[in-house]
Specification:
Blueprint (H helix, E strand, L loop, with lengths): L17 E6 L3 H12 L3 E7 L3 H10 L8 H7 L2 E4 L6 H10 L3 E5 L6 H14 L3 E4 L6 H7 L5 E9 L11 H16 L4 E9 L8 E8 L4 E7 L6 E8 L2 E6 L4 E6 L4 E2 L7 E6 L5 H15 L7 H28 L6
Parallel strand pairs: 1-2, 1-3, 3-4, 4-5, 6-9
Antiparallel strand pairs: 6-10, 7-8, 8-9, 10-11, 11-12, 12-14, 13-14
Length: 339
């Protein structure tokens, strides 16, 4: 069912704005509301949150959008952004799609693979847009990497940050590591064959630090570390391939590529060249919203669709399972106390 605004009937209307409601007025919900309000192709029709005072406050900051109950929000919207806690993503996305509304849901797409499959099937059945908020797919650094490395042999990713209470409703795997898992999956054209992982809960009830070694069927290996209890912020990725060696610092927005094709010659290296690249600040969230509006209004392909969201979720759940198996081995050996 396409609903009042759904399906393809209104797509491509020249100059028309997408009527968007935001579900969730927390940290990310506020940012989404501000981006919708500022977008040339979106109109913010309202905000829903169990804390209606919080919804009203965010709405006032975003130009006076009203705080609405969920039914009214869905009635006034043709698309919604779901920025509620992860445990509610499935039920809210399912309800919105069944109401005939396009959906941009924050990552992870859902809590289980079965839920992700059901949402993907529902989006296909209704002909509605279901976009998953893997924000870094719209980033300048992602483009800079994929333009230079297409067949990686080994990837090493680090994403660490000081502790913040936000996001602790899920593990660091679903909070931070899933960003790099999604980027790695976008670069490596192969299925995951094996995952070995370790993790520990330190400041919350879920894992706050984790390391995973992911082996793909084509032989590529990725080692990914994520932490939200570090003393500093660091976001790096290194890739080795026959095309060369690439090192990217996402915080400094700097990339170095060592290869044979482009860059300045490196004396004494047998023909290797060094290319240094920097990029300007790029409003990635605005780019994500522009892509969402283009998919809803113009029928543009969805860059991060339900299948991409499912693949990232499957990888995150595999890491979680690897951590659980490692913990059980440690408990049996007496290395750690029984939980």
């Amino acid at each position: 069912m396409a609903g009042l605004f759904g399906g393809g009937t209104a797509r491509g209307a020249k100059g028309r704005q997408l009527r968007v409601g935001v579900i969730g007025a927390g940290h990310f919900g506020r940012f989404h509301a501000l981006k919708v309000a500022a977008s040339p192709r979106e109109t913010l029709v309202g905000i829903h949150d169990p804390d209606m005072a919080r919804a009203a406050s965010v709405g006032a900051e975003a130009g006076g959008a009203p705080a609405l109950d969920l039914d009214t929000l869905l009635d006034r919207s043709e698309a919604v952004v779901i920025a509620a806690p992860a445990e509610h993503h499935f039920i809210l996305a399912d309800r919105a799609l069944r109401a005939g509304r396009h959906v941009l849901v924050e990552k992870p797409i859902a809590s289980t693979l079965d839920q992700a499959d059901r949402l993907a099937a529902l989006a296909t059945e209704t002909g509605l847009v279901l976009q998953v908020g893997h924000l870094l797919r719209y980033s300048a650094e992602h483009r800079a990497i994929t333009e230079r490395i297409s067949r990686p042999l080994y990837i090493e990713a680090t994403r660490i940050a000081p502790f913040k209470p936000r996001g602790t409703d899920v593990s660091v795997i679903l909070d931070l590591m899933i960003h790099d898992l999604d980027l790695v999956l976008a670069i490596v054209d192969s299925e995951i064959e094996d995952v070995d992982a370790l993790g520990a809960a330190v400041s919350s009830q879920h894992e706050d630090i984790a390391n995973a070694r992911v082996r793909f069927a084509n032989g590529c290996v990725a080692t990914i570390t994520a932490s939200r209890i570090s003393l500093k912020t660091e976001r790096r990725m290194r890739l080795f391939s026959e095309e060369g060696y690439l090192s990217a610092d996402f915080v400094k927005r700097e990339l170095t590529m060592i290869g044979r094709e482009t860059g300045l010659p490196l004396p004494g290296t047998g023909g290797f060249r060094r290319q240094a690249v920097t990029w300007d600040d790029h409003d990635t969230l605005a780019a994500e919203h522009a892509a969402f509006a283009a998919s809803c209004l113009d029928g543009a392909p969805v860059l991060v669709d339900a299948q991409a969201g499912r693949r990232a979720l499957a990888a995150a759940l595999a890491v979680t399972g690897g951590i659980r198996a490692a913990r059980e081995r440690m408990e049996r050996s007496g290395l750690v106390r029984m939980s």
